[in-house]
Write a structure and sequence with these properties.
- This is YigZ family protein.
- Belongs to the IMPACT family.
- Pfam families: DUF1949, Impact_N.
- The protein is an alpha+beta fold.
- It folds into two domains: about 120 residues, Impact, N-terminal domain (Ribosomal Protein S5, domain 2, 2-Layer Sandwich), CATH 3.30.230; about 70 residues, Alpha-Beta Plaits.
- Helix content is about 35%, strand content about 40%.
- The strands form three sheets. The protein has a five-stranded antiparallel beta sheet with strand order 2-3-6-4-5, with helices on both faces. A four-stranded antiparallel beta sheet has the order 9-10-8-11.
- A hairpin with a 2-residue loop joins strand 9 and strand 10.
- Helix 2 packs parallel to helix 3.
- The longest helix is centred in the middle third of the chain and has 19 residues.
- It is rod-shaped, with a radius of gyration of 24 Å.
Amino acid sequence: MFVLTGCETFSQEIKRSRFHAVAGPVVDEAAAKEFIAAHGEAAANHNCWAWRIGAAYRFGDDGEPAGTAGKPILQAIDGQKLDNAVVVVTRWFGGILLGSGGLIRAYGGTAAACLRAAEKRAVVATLTARIDCPFADHARVRARLAAMPDAEVTAETFHATGAEMAVRVPEARAAEVARLVTDITSGRARVDVI
């Protein structure tokens, strides 16, 4: 899964109709609606759009035949495995009818080209590991965790016999982190993955 790091635009002309796409990141439905309102062109014939935020999604055809604009835009978002993304494709009619298939290709293709040009960042599923280790092992465990580029100590509390750390790690590396801590401390540390 990926998210957009910023806004991107793309324009093309298809049979004298101008298509202009704007894509951007959003965090919720309200932000998606604001983006759509801000990037729609009042002078254009159609401002079609789609967004996906987790399992939620919406799309709009803005006067184009049903399923020929918003749905292909959503398919472009899903085809590039994007989340928290919105795309608005504006069309200025050029006088030549494109037909249903032509509209689907034009809207979906314009959105896809815009999204391909956009900068993306991979979203990595993480979880929290709680590590309770004795004072004698604390510095060594902390140093080894700091050397891991994808592990982050998010909280640390001290108690009478040692320290408890909350560490955010990629889900795929949780077992590796647990083994590492167990090996470093010869089994003296307790690791719970949440």
